[in-house]
Amino acid sequence: MTAPNLESFRRGSMFDASFRRSNMFDGSFRQSFRDYSYMFEDNTPARCCSYMYLVKKSKGVLVRAWEMGTSDPRKIIFSAKMGLALTLISLLVFFKLPGSEVSNHYLWAILTIIVIFEFSIGGTFSKGCHVGLGTLSAGALALGTAEISDMTGKCADVFNTASIFVVAFLGTYAKLYPTMKPYEYGFRVFLLTYCYVIVSGYRSGEFMETAVSRLLMIALGASIGLIVNICIYPIWAGDDLHNLITNNFVNVATSLEGCVNGYLNSAHYDLISVVDTGYRSAVESKSQEDTLMGFAAWEPPHGPYRSFRYPWKMYVKVGGALRHCAFMVMALHGCILSQIQAPEEKREAFRNELQKVGLEGAKVLRLIGQKLKKMERLNPIEDILEEIHQAAEQLQSKIDKKSYLLVNVENWEIGNDGIEVSNIDEEGLISRKLDYESHKEAALLPRQTWWPPFLLSISSIMWKSESADLSLATFASLLIEFAARLENLVNAYDELCDIANFKEAFSG
Fold this sequence. Notes:
Elements: H1 6-24, H2 27-35, H3 51-71, H4 74-94, H5 100-103, H6 106-116, H7 121-152, H8 156-175, H9 184-204, H10 207-231, H11 237-264, H12 276-283, H13 286-296, H14 312-336, H15 344-349, H16 351-374, H17 386-401, H18 426-436, H19 439-444, H20 458-500
Membrane topology: Multi-pass membrane protein
Family: Belongs to the aromatic acid exporter (TC 2.A.85) family.
Main location: membrane
């Protein structure tokens, strides 16, 4: 066996090395290296720990906080009131209240202020009442349990432990009952107070002192919280409920006009999306109205609401009637967003009647909203629904006269058994369809195409043509239904005026 030629191996290795060195700096290698340079680049976004990222986020938070404060200055005032209340209770603690046992439970006064201090006066009263009832009932039950445990002698530990389990079980199960849901916070305070008195009193041997000290601290914290919240720029839930429903009238009226004008003017799909912000405020405000009504029921007479047991439920009833009308506006908005639209020529035939109903409906909503804002009755001499009822009747009469525009009358002729698909001229039908569609619709409704490419068939053209005609009838019928629902709204408002003793309307 011959020995390997080491000299040739060395020459080959040297040649390969020199070749690699020579090509490392030529253009082709640099170009190929540049092509894969992205593998070594750090394209990850700015990390949370980076300085610029923190500065950017901090600026965003400050801007949003400033916008929130300027949009509703009451939030700044409420925050200042919370700080003042906590400062006052802290000063009392620092100056050492008389009685060492009471001073040992100062933390409960601070917790009480933090817990019951709500944005509105009604919310503060509601939370304060729940705290007081929960504390009193739990303290009384804990004292009774302590007396019984003393009689058990050596079994006191077992008795106290078992009592905590039984009370926690019954209290938690009771708060899950549907009618007890508004009092859930009171049950939480009840359980917290009971366990605290039992455990602390057992360790110190002074159940009575523990219960009384906690009650005094809670009363002190609740008193300071109520005084600060009521005496310094009070925020009333009743005013918020009144303003909420008043603004909803204006928003629904604006959305109604926008829907009618957008439908008649062939509004663009994206441009009409701003219409839903009006009626959504009324549709989605039910939970907010219920919450404000619950808080307003706790508030004493104030401002224009000078009677006890003010009919806040009637405000919610008026809001519900308005929401019933807003659902029709939502349906009208859905007609505009539909993929199948009636030709503009047919919509023009009903323009005046449709626009009249929309304008009169918005006029009625704005009038009731203005009357509610001023807390005035409707004028008994004038019928505010007369104009819109006449407009609805005119629209219905126009539909009856020109019903042939809303259906395909060729299929309803006597002796016509229908059109066979095999006998239809496909090219002629498609050409007639294209001629029927106006150039304005093609420009303004790019996303509402009549015939998608994958559905360009004879059967799809036939049923879509009929559906396009019926879409106009749907829009008109929804407007007529809206006009009919306004009567319930007016009746609900009249009932509110009678119960709340609104002032008479000024003539002229």
